[in-house]
Design brief:
single chain, alpha/beta, Rossmann fold, Arc Repressor Mutant, subunit A, 2 domains, 13% strand
């Protein structure tokens, strides 16, 4: 699971525009219904294949493209790769029933902003899509946990390195400081600190401040 205190915080007044790409109409409808329970997310369109996805991306200009890996006409990862090349401002997130390591790795190497499983609880899905739209790279907690147990998947957990500001925020959290105290020390707003933490949680694939503290104190962060 993902810590909703970090991922589910609305950090902007702008509405996040999402395009859902899946070859099953029922899945598209269900995903739309879940996402649109959030007041800051709107599904601007649905596509059933890669060609339609590319066309709608150019016409609707979504912020986030939510793509199934197993499209009928081609791999969702290939679609993601083409969208990332032709529309670099669009954040592409895979939403898949498949959790094979090779697929996850291929998607990450294609430059996606995230890889989520369709088994993810609805509130966590909303939070993850929101985080991806803000600029974070997100990995389903099930995959993060598996990667943490498998030394060969370390690159998935550290695919996006922390900035020096995010690292400083994480270290101050480990010292037991509150967001407000950290903001005062760093000379920024509390909202900025919340944004840094949102990125830290997403990049490290962790669920809570407690986990963050444990990671900093036992292994450090890089």
């Amino acid at each position: 699971m993902v810590d909703t205190t970090v991922w589910d915080e609305v950090g902007t007044n702008n509405v996040l525009r999402v395009l859902v790409v899946d070859d099953h109409a029922v899945v598209r409808t269900g995903t739309r219904q879940v996402l649109e329970t959030a007041r800051d997310i709107t599904v601007v369109g649905e596509a059933g294949d890669g060609i339609e996805a590319l066309a709608l991306t150019g016409r609707l200009e979504p912020d986030v493209l939510l793509v199934d890996v197993g499209l009928r006409d081609e791999s969702g990862i290939d679609v993601a790769r083409r969208v990332i090349t032709t529309h670099p401002d669009v954040r592409v997130v895979m939403l898949s029933a498949h959790d094979e390591d090779e697929l996850v790795r291929d998607a990450w190497e294609a430059g996606v902003a995230g890889y989520l499983l369709k088994t993810m609880p609805r509130d966590k899905l909303i939070g993850a899509v929101r985080a991806a739209g803000r600029g974070s790279r997100v990995l389903d907690p099930v995959l993060s946990a598996r990667g943490a147990r498998n030394e060969g998947h370390e690159e998935l957990l550290n695919a996006s390195r922390l900035t020096w500001r995010e690292r400083e925020t994480a270290e101050l959290v480990a010292e037991g400081l509150s967001n407000r105290t950290i903001a005062l020390r760093m000379g920024v707003s509390v909202r900025t600190i919340e944004g840094h933490l949102n990125h830290v949680f997403a990049k490290l694939g962790i669920e809570s401040r407690t986990e963050l503290v444990r990671m900093v104190l036992t292994r450090g962060i890089s």
